[in-house]
Amino acid sequence: MKRRITVILSLTATSTLLVVSLHWLGKNEIQHHDFDRSFLEFYPDVESQWALQSPKHYIAGLYGNYLYIADIFGRTNLLSVNCEKADDPIDTITIPISPEDSHIIVDSGSIYVTDLNRFDIFRFKITGRNSFNDGERVFESTFFVEAVPVRGEVFAIRTLNQSKEYVLALKSSVKTSPTYSPGILEKQIDGLFCTDGMLHFNAVLKQLIYVYYYRNEFICMDSSLHLRYRGKTIDGVERVQIRVAEIKSDQAMALASPPRIVNKKSHSSGDWLFIHSVVKATNESVSTFQKNDVIDMYNLHNGRYAGSFYLPRINGEKLRDFKVYGNRLVAIHGRVLTTFDLRRIVGALHLTRPL
């Protein structure tokens, strides 16, 4: 129990410092490295927009035509909107559990509510736009900082090993212990902050993808966490640029300075990996880079860079969150939820840069 509390305190401190760091980075854009982007001819077309009550929302997922949005501070309040209808009102759904700290994922017709204090996950199968079944616990009492549903009760998780370093693992049912995959995440400094990143599951390709925050690398694995290949982003930031310090009173590590983020957000859909990069290329002007957010695309069959496009900032707000579902990109800028049509962009990629 004492060890678990120490770990939680350490990660809480990490989260606080990361928020401060992101604020700092917002005022200090990363300078370019010696690389060029290959920009696609088209901007994505705006489809629909909705006003959100809070700037602290994130995209939970899509099921059918319904897009689900969660609030960082709203615990288990979930919003739904029909993304095929521009005039569809936003509905509020209340899920009948309220962990103090939670994260919600909507995937494959289910709502997954993660209790980040007890490390449990509950699944509610969606039965209608605003209705679902009674729910069941599908993950129990295994420490993690990130969990992604793969199939049924199988989850890929990011957790800690005995050295308090991040490691990926697979948990195949509620009661079983996780199966670790050591060596997938590669340590550069401390094994914790230097390997921090984002975990995704691509259901079409049956691939798990991990994108590092602080270096130019992403990792593609099969659904059993076996390495397929390591891909490189185009920016050239091969080494993480962070400083860590030990908090002796808590026997924990913390960031000693704002980290230099390379890949801020990412998502995977179909053949493609989409990465929101915050590194300016040599062929981008400062003014254009500051008025838009750049999305780099990578071919998941071979890891090669495919091209880039800009998402214009809305009301001057930077991109907070995005996800891609087929030919539709969903984004949140401040209090605005926007859907974009990617058909011309994806079509151009298939024509000029075949798989």
Overview of the molecule:
By secondary structure, the chain is mainly β. The chain has a single domain, classed as 6 Propeller (Neuraminidase), CATH 2.120.10. 12% of the residues lie in helices and 45% in strands. It contains 3 helices and 27 strands. The protein has helices at residues 2-27, 286-291, 343-352; strands at 45-51, 57-63, 66-71, 77-82, 91-94, 102-107, 110-115, 120-128, 131-132, 136-139, 146-151, 154-160, 166-171, 179-181, 197-202, 207-212, 217-222, 227-232, 244-247, 252-255, 263-269, 272-277, 292-299, 305-312, 319-325, 328-333, 336-341. Strands 6, 7, 8, 9 and 10 form a 5-stranded antiparallel beta sheet that branches. A 4-stranded antiparallel beta sheet has the order 1-27-26-25, with no helix packed on it. Strands 2-3-4-5 form a 4-stranded antiparallel beta sheet, with no helix packed on it. Strand 7 and strand 8 (120-128) form a beta hairpin. The protein is globular, with a radius of gyration of 20 Å. The N and C termini lie far apart (50 Å). The model is unreliable at 1-29 (pLDDT under 50).
